[in-house]
Fold this protein.
Amino acid sequence: MNPHLAQLQPYPFEKLRALFAGVTPNPQFKEIKLSIGEPQHPTPAFIKEALAAGLAGLANYPTTAGVPALRQAIARWCERRYGLTLDAETEIVPVNGSREALFSFAQAVIDPHRGHRPLVVSPNPFYQIYEGAAYLAGAEPRFLNNLPDNAFAFDYTSLSEEAWSRVQLFYVCSPGNPTGKVFSLDDWKTLFALSDKYGFIIASDECYSEIYFDEANPPIGGLQAARLLGRSNERLVMFSSLSKRSNVPGMRSGFVAGDARILKDFLLYRTYHGCAMAPPVQTASIAAWNDEAHVLDNRNQYRAKFAACTPMISAVLDTAMPDAGFYLWAKTPIADGEFARGLLEHYNVVVLPGSFLARETGGVNPGRNFIRIALVASLEECLEAAARIQQFARQL
């Protein structure tokens, strides 16, 4: 077996099952699950109809690059959303959701034979795929905590000059999971300067980009930032997905866009990897990328939930509206695992301990004594969960 498999830590939800072992939830309450970032709004009917209309495509092998109509639909969306002019032939690769692409991208771009072990850098807390992708590519993951006086600025000084010289890949998640923070143009400028100096690739995970609260100020994307700063897409790729945007997590559809040179090699890797998107999914994806009405409706539903639930939860836990995304990142008055276990036992609400989403760096686990609350259920259920969290927190 690949020896790097032994380096993988249990996934957060495996840790959650272990944490909850032996807990009997209060039968007085129906379970409300706010632990996993799985969209629960209904899938739009027109997407399901397009999926069914594409079933004839099951008779054919799909190409890894996807049909031209899909790449063109994605290119048009990138132009509408970010003002980008992308070559649909060379700067866009359809993928089976951002998760598999974020993982496989590291396998394609990491060179473990440069005379030293390469580094893959990511935020801390972070989406756990980044760490696993680094290990399986033969690299060492490194995590950057935020500066104490800045909610999102990374502590770049925590890496030595020697360490920066070994960085080959830098994962950014904006809007962030779990904090909901958004990279500013100045944040991008700083990171681009480091990429120019040390030559590493930036992988911008933007799967939450379409869930935000101010219609006049959508989150800035990595490629958009490069355009605004007068840069090319060199050493820069973005990852986007329909899962959260269009409520189709089971469809596994997204794309990678950016540096054509990198994507040419990534497409070669994927051709051998055998991860072409199913034809019916491509047909449904074209329909989804071409429509914005359902995305606005989706945002409005999240906006209503955050407006109603954030004041309730912030009355008992230290939390605030995120910049974007569908998570509340809340500080707990007791250990995060103890809080999550007690909340399940007494009120049958499931949340995720923040320490499960981070690694100890510099003697600090930045997720410790936080919980991640995914407001993915219905407004009614989220309000009920918020009321139960209030009751539990006030008893501590």
